[in-house]
Every structure is written in C-alpha cells, then in structure tokens.
Fold this protein.
Amino acid sequence: MNINIGNNSNMGNDFADKDVMNEILSTEKTTSGNYNTFANECVDPQLRNDLMQILNSTHKIQADIFNEMQSKGIYQPCEAEQQKITKAKQKYSQQAK
C-alpha cells in the first residue's frame, strides 16, 4: 500500500501530515477492534470467515500505515527493556499454567 496524503495546502485545513496519519492509524485500530469483536461473536460460519478476511485486510492496512509513519519519523515506538520483556514472559507463562 502506498500512502500519500499529498500537500496540506490542498486539504483546506491546518492538519499536518502527522495529525492526519495519526488519525488514520487510530481509525484503523478502532475498525480492526470492531471487526475482531464481530468475528468473535458471529454464529454463522461463512459470515465469520468473511469477517476474518476483512479483519486480515484491516490489519494489513494498519501495518502499512504504521510502516509509512515509521519511515517518515512520525511514529517511533521505543524498544522495550529486556528486563520488562523477561518479567512479562514470566507473568504470562505462569498465568497460562
């Protein structure tokens, strides 16, 4: 997916690229959450399958937006500290037992 939001002067408002892309990413996160809920609660197997395909597409779009934002330096998540990763692994492996 190639995301090009163009020149802000054509948009007729004061949103910067960062603001627009943050809004798009937020919308995709909400959308994928809704499709996830719909698929989880769906009784009809064919409809559930269709929703899962849509959910997969939505996740792909979300990843494309995230990658574009990252490449532009708009969204730079920090790396998790190894100690926090180890602690989370221990916590959730104990809960799974």
User: Anything to note?
Assistant: Residues 28 and 62 are 6 Å apart (CA to CA). DSSP finds three helices and no strands in the chain. The chain has a mean pLDDT of 85.
